[in-house]
Amino acid sequence: MPNLSKPSVATEDENETTASSTISLFDAIAETETGVDGDALEIIRIGTDANFISLFTHDVVPVSAHYLEATDDWSGTYAQCHGDVCPACQAGLSKTEYVLLPVLDRLEGQVKVLRITRQKGPGKLLTELGQVLAMPDRDRLVVRIVRSRNYVHQLTFESETDLDPALADAVRAFTEKVEKGVLHVKNVIPQYSIEEMVTHDKIAKRLLLVRKA
User: Fold this and answer.
1) Is 74 helix (H, G, I), strand (E, B) or coil?
2) Per-residue pLDDT of the chain (213 residues; tens, 9 = 90+)
3) What distance in Å separates the CA atoms of residue 96 and residue 143, rounded to the nearest whole number?
4) What CA–CA distance (Å, rounded) separates 117 from 99?
5) Which among 77, 103, 105, 195 would be 20 to 30 A from 41, CA to CA?
6) Alpha carbon distance 105, 114 (integer Å)
7) Taking the CA of residue 72 as centre, how many other CA atoms within 13 Å lie in the half-sphere pointing to its CB?
8) HSE-up of 139 (CA within 13 Å, CB side)?
């Protein structure tokens, strides 16, 4: 996951180190493949193009988040809510309740995370996935998800005999890392400190007006 917070300013010492240091291209490729911490999770984005997933768990992680719009210093990003002391809440920014569900991305052969709003009803992703998760053979299903332009989700599925061993290994490795505390599903949504969040232009301006009111 990219670091979308306000960029830090390099000191003179840091600039000297950057100018005089080199790394191997192969090291750079390895860093790109593994991520900064070596165990980064990604959100699987559901759009109008079909996504293909397999479900292997019904355990979800609840999280409250704000969307922080792009500014000169910030890329557009979601940010975890800080609850009663959250600057985004105090600034009057809307908050959305999500559940995070780990799934197997069949197109890339990796475990990724679905960010699902808690809205229920026909065509809502939470309701449609719940019906599939209730099936006894859910781990043998390849689920096709398509979202229409008016945000109606359609799920279809096909059964397969056995999961490819490499895909089964990916699920097993993910599960072990979560159990050991190496991976945290909630971290797919960035958690910025209160000090970082108040630097966001929209939050900072709104907080000034709130304090004057």
Assistant:
1) coil
2) 333 333 333 333 434 333 344 544 445 444 433 333 346 789 999 999 999 999 999 999 999 999 999 988 888 899 999 999 999 999 999 999 999 999 999 999 999 999 999 999 999 999 999 999 998 888 889 999 999 999 999 999 999 877 788 999 999 999 999 999 999 999 999 999 999 999 999 999 999 998 876
3) 26
4) 6
5) 195
6) 10
7) 2
8) 9
pLDDT at 26: 42
Measured between alpha carbons, how far is 66 from 68 in angstroms, rounded to an integer? Answer: 6
Give me 206's structure tokens: 């709104």
In a domain, 1, yes or no: no
Determine the pLDDT at residue 164: 86
pLDDT of residue 56: 92
In a domain, 122, yes or no: yes
Nearest by Cα to 147 from 45, 46, 44 = 46
Which amino acid, one-letter code, is at 2? P
- The verdict on residue 2 lying in a domain is no
In whole angstroms, what separates CA 177 from the centre of its chain?
17
118 is written with which tokens? 């808690």
- Strand positions, DSSP E, 59-131: 61-68, 77-80, 96-105, 110-117
The rounded distance, in Å, linking the Cα atoms of 104 and 65 is 23
Show the domain range for 164: 41-212
Amino acid letter, residue 115: R
Q: Is residue 112 part of a domain?
A: yes
Q: How many domains does the chain have?
A: 1
The strand pairing partners of 67, in sequence order, are 78
